[in-house]
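User: Could you check the structure of this?
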Amino acid sequence: MIGIRVSGAVDEALVARFLALAAHEEAVEVVFANPALATYAQGWGRKGDSALVAEDETTHKVVGMCWARFWTAEQHGFGWIDEWTPELAIAVEPQFQGQGIGARLIEALKVELLSVSMLDSQGASFRPERVALNVRADSPAVRLYERVGFVRVEGSERQNRTGSISYNMVAPL
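Assistant: Sure, the predicted structure tokens are below.
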């Protein structure tokens, strides 16, 4: 049985492991060698960072992870919309895909994000109302994202680091 839980012990290494999987990279070292990817894991645990893990309840092996980070206009990821919208990333080990784990992780993280309180660049307190992500246009995950409420952000298409097209999607919390 696979359980979903808030990760109390998430660190850069675990985020990087699943980021490498999400980015279709063979090794975690590639994540830290690429500044655009490294920013998703470096300094993990800052205010607003949220993560959930999918864990095999028998072996306690983490088989999936969904995490979100708030960004600024000066420092942001590929799926950045604005400072009030956290960017979600997700990865599930290939042998566990297609079992609904990704949808469960996303839905649970959306609920978790409702309890986050942040300060914007003007010092005003806010709670996020939506979450964003960036996806390759040809990714099978697009269907999953649409099923859990994400819609494509028109005009966000751009060539990604692999030369293919990616775009942003947003979903209400």
